Amino acid sequence: MSSPTEEQILCVKTNLRNMIDFNNQLYNEGNTKILNAYFLLSISDDHDLGLEVGLNLLKGAFTGIGVEGGIIGAIASNFLCGLLDSYISTTPDSLNAQMSSLLTRFQKTSEQLDVDLEMYYSNPATYWNNTFSGSVTNAFGTYPISSTFSDLATINFPEQTNSLFMDYVLTSQYALDQEVWFTLLVNFKITQFNPSTIYPCKNNSEQEMETNAAFFYTKNKSYWNNWVYHYSTNRKGDDNSYYEHWQNDIGTGAGAFTDGSLNDSACDYLFIDSYDNIIINVNGLFHRSFVFTQMPKIEHTTYTYNH
User: Fold this and answer.
1) Separation CA 232–CA 201 (nearest Å)
2) In sequence order, which residues have a C-beta less than 8 Å from that of residue 174 and are 6 or more positions away?
């Protein structure tokens, strides 16, 4: 087991102080993201989603700098996420209670993180060889994390006056926004409408299918269209190939007189693109096809129109 030098202790204490400032800044920004998501999705933040959801919000946020913040961000992210993950096995009293809302859960989790960072700040040498491990789950998968407290002596986490500090805040704020929407979209479902529609290839090219889909989304923002090419010939050998086309909608579910679509404002905020990589919102959270085909935990269903 190693022992730190005074210089290393000072470095770690400086990093911890800057991480506390970072966590507090993220909390302030994060509140608005949670409120905004509930508002746009037209659902009420009126019950607790549980300990692990609260932890995942912050871990998901810190993963942002883990991915895009270079070696400093990666080491800081692993430490912060590992510390949060330890609350699962040893839950602090402040978090081992029923909360009134997700906003409150987020607040209490952020406050508890501050408390523990202050504890580590008070005497870094005591925790020098502590290890942290666990996992982070976001919309894109589950990833392992591992860290040793002494790793914090190898980096210089930016202070508030450093422009990199705000870069980190903005990166984590975006990742938090993604985590919030990933968490709340389970309240909705994706509906595939049947029967499918047939588009003969002699009248419709792949490019035209894509262009038509992109135009369709301008009027039907909660939809995603997909199609499959089928090669076919008639008895004379003439090409009768066609595209089999489906429409899919995210929302509350279809019925006889409604498609249950997610409202336009929510869709404008959620989607980065219309058809694949045709960008409509550079600040959007997810690509349209990802939400409809890869986003975990969203229920998929079908609705058949009777003609």
Assistant:
1) 10
2) 64, 285
